[in-house]
Automatic annotation (TrEMBL):
UniProt name for this protein: DUF2516 family protein
Residues in the signal sequence: none
Ranges of Low complexity composition bias in the record: 108-119
Top-level lineage group: Bacteria
Lineage: Bacteria, Bacillati, Actinomycetota, Actinomycetes, Kitasatosporales
Segments of skewed composition (Gly residues): 93-107
Sequence segments annotated as region (Disordered): 91-119
Keywords on record: Membrane, Transmembrane, Transmembrane helix
Transmembrane segments: 50-83
């Protein structure tokens, strides 16, 4: 019974490790495709800073056991990027993806074109 519990816990930790690696990898890829000036405009450090932090987070979550302190710090860095920095960058960049906004248009556009107040 104890062996089965230990095996289940090890499997859970393995899944958690994969999830944290995926989180860091997604953040790293997202930051890599964002424009440098968006980081400055959002007042969120700079692109190189976040690429380094997220790259270290990915490596740390791969190399170390999830029960150590370094992967926890790496997870916190990835989460901060995804819940604080990424939304600010999207707002500064005009939403959408970091690869460039498709379609143009303004904030007053409706589904059928510009809204002109009924004129």
């Amino acid at each position: 019974m104890g062996d089965m519990l230990a095996l289940g816990f090890a499997g859970f930790l393995g899944l958690l490790k994969i999830l944290l690696m995926a989180l860091a990898a997604f953040g790293l890829a997202d930051a890599a495709f964002r424009r440098e000036d968006a980081f400055r405009a959002a007042d969120k450090q700079n692109k190189v800073f976040w690429l380094i932090i997220l790259g270290i987070s990915l490596v740390v979550s791969y190399l170390f056991s999830i029960l150590a302190i370094l992967p926890v710090a790496a997870a916190v860095a990835s989460i901060v990027y995804l819940v604080d920095v990424r939304p600010a960058l999207k707002q500064v960049s005009g939403g959408g993806r970091g690869w460039g906004r498709r379609g143009g248009g303004s904030s007053s556009d409706g589904p059928y074109g510009p809204y002109n107040g009924g004129r």
